[in-house]
Design a protein that fits this description.
The protein contains 21 helices and 19 strands. By secondary structure, the chain is of the alpha/beta class. It has 2 domains: about 190 residues, Ribosomal Protein S5, domain 2 (2-Layer Sandwich); about 240 residues, P-loop containing nucleotide triphosphate hydrolases (Rossmann fold), CATH 3.40.50. The strands form 6 sheets. A 5-stranded parallel β-sheet has the order 12-15-18-11-19. Strands 1-2-4-3 form a 4-stranded mixed β-sheet. A 4-stranded mixed β-sheet has the order 5-8-9-10.
């Protein structure tokens, strides 16, 4: 047979697109042509495939005109993930393996010159996309990728370490073998359950800071974004690093979504699967590093923090363009990256925990050291955080450093496990009532579940005095709803609204929200 078709898959964002690798062998001047909008990395597969076949003891059709078409032709193809499919197609077209048995399989893997298979990016994302579409496909993947793809429930994944493992399985004499009857290195991967969450840094390490822990508990309950303002060494970073431990355990679907995004950039670690991610990019990070970009589009830190925490320390030091790019995903929970050739959408439902100093020197209002900044300098420094971005942060917290005697003699604080138990119960209460977190309430759902009639006058007065926008008023109502849930109250009382109002004050030096 001089024509063979092998199936593979291309990833655009988290969406997998079927790719047919068509291989035709014809008489004529010997050549190896690869078409189908292939990137340079894909075109280099010609040399990798040729060497892999020869070094594996297989015959390469030197005397044939080889044409490989990656269809559809208008879909960009990148990376070395098509090496295995191209090699299998050449062998099927030359009759070395049974072409009819390839129909229900998809192949992905990069070939080394010796024929060994190397892992590829996005195997978990492709497997998850197949699962969400309800498509049952047998996936053949290299070690390192097969284990990741097998995390998806009901996925049928086979691991092959070498090109010869694939050849032996699909050789004509193996036509009557069972699908999972494996040669030495051919193995069907078993689906692995999500491991128990490993303990992290404990909130008990934070001495004092009762008010700060209270705000973090409210933020964890409702999924609210938080800005911490305080002098250097007050404990802002310490609190932020322990915040993820307050959040309830991830569901399998949430864990897979986060893992799929990480697999796109080759950053997935199976040992940390099922744990909430805390991404803490440096303040020199660009807008592309933060929200994603490139060609083809790649996810940024906000998508890698999906279902987890994005911690931005030294918030005013980030480039203005990077901070302003956060405004859309903070509202929608996703980020769309458009390029001339293609567009990709990545999930980005994260909790933002930001920290900053009150002034350039950091000691405004501190008892440790006198501030040397003028009011104009303070105003310019705090104005680096734009009003629209500040308006999207639900909670504003002032973190005060502990006196030395209290820091040294104070007992251990409340443990993460105890706080997490209350947060889990409050979240379950809100999800049972409205099917979403309080931070996500919009429109009629907000009106239905955040009624605060006795406290409406109090909230109206605060909004007028602090020049709140409509968004600011709604966000305070959502925070009050979370406070009520922690108090196991079905209604929002004036006390809940009063507490919510004090957590939403404009920064000193800004003109308001």
């Amino acid at each position: 047979m001089s024509l063979a078709v092998v199936h593979s898959r291309a990833l655009v964002g988290l969406t997998g697109h079927p790719v047919s690798v068509e291989v035709h062998l014809a008489n004529g001047l010997p050549s190896f042509t690869l078409v189908g909008l292939a990137d340079l990395e894909v075109k280099e597969a010609r040399e990798r495939v040729r060497s892999a076949l020869q070094n594996s003891g297989l015959e390469f059709p030197h005397n044939k005109r080889i044409t490989v078409n990656l269809a559809p032709a208008d879909l960009p193809k990148e990376s070395g993930r098509y090496d295995l499919a191209i090699a299998v197609g050449i062998l099927a077209a030359s009759g070395a393996i049974d072409a009819e048995r390839l129909n229900h399989y998809e192949f992905a893997g990069e070939l080394s010159l010796s024929g060994a298979l190397r892992p590829v990016r996005g195997a978990l994302a492709a497997s998850m996309d197949l699962h969400q579409r309800g498509q049952h496909v047998r996936q053949v993947l290299p070690p390192g990728s097969a284990e990741d793809a097998a995390l998806v429930p009901d996925a049928e994944v086979y691991r092959a370490s070498h090109l010869m493992d694939v050849v032996q399985h699909f050789a004509p004499q193996a036509a009557n073998a069972e699908p999972d009857a494996a040669p030495s290195q051919w193995q069907r991967m078993a689906t692995q359950p999500m491991p128990a969450e490993a303990p992290g840094a404990d909130m008990a390490d934070v001495k004092g800071q009762t008010a700060s822990k209270r705000v973090l508990e409210i933020a964890a309950c409702g999924g609210h974004n938080l800005l911490m303002l305080g002098a250097p060494g007050a404990g802002k970073s310490m609190l932020a690093q322990r915040f993820a431990g307050l959040l309830p355990a991830l569901t399998v679907a949430e864990a897979l979504e986060n893992a799929a995004v990480h697999s796109l950039v080759g950053a997935f670690d199976a040992r940390s699967w099922g744990q909430r991610t805390t991404m803490a990019p440096h303040h020199t990070a660009s807008a592309v590093a933060l929200v994603g970009g490139g060609s083809p589009p790649r996810p940024g830190s906000i998508s890698l923090a999906h279902c987890g925490v994005l911690f931005l320390d030294e918030l005013p030091e980030f480039p203005r363009s990077a901070l302003e790019a956060l405004r859309e995903p903070l509202e929608t929970g996703q980020i769309s990256i458009a390029r001339a050739a293609q567009q990709a959408t990545f999930p980005a439902r994260f909790q933002l925990i930001a920290a900053m100093n009150p002034c350039p020197c950091g000691f405004r209002g501190s008892r440790q050291r006198a501030c040397r900044c003028s009011p104009d300098q303070v105003s310019r420094y705090q104005a680096r955080i734009s009003g629209p971005l500040l308006d999207r942060i639900d909670l504003h917290l002032e973190v005060s450093p502990l006196p030395a005697d209290e820091l040294l003699t104070a007992p251990a604080g409340e443990s993460t496990a105890a706080i997490r138990e209350r947060v889990t119960a409050a979240r379950a209460r809100s999800l049972q009532r409205q099917g979403m977190l309080n931070q996500q309430l919009q429109g009629q759902a907000l009106d239905a579940h955040c009624q605060a009639e006795p406290a409406a006058l109090q909230l109206q007065t605060a909004a007028a005095q602090l020049a709140w926008s409509a968004r600011g008023i709604h966000r305070s109502l959502r925070v009050a709803r979370s406070i009520a849930d922690l108090a196991q109250s079905e209604t929002i009382s004036p006390a809940h609204v009063a507490e919510a109002v004090q957590y939403r004050r404009a920064l000193l030096g800004t003109s308001g929200m």
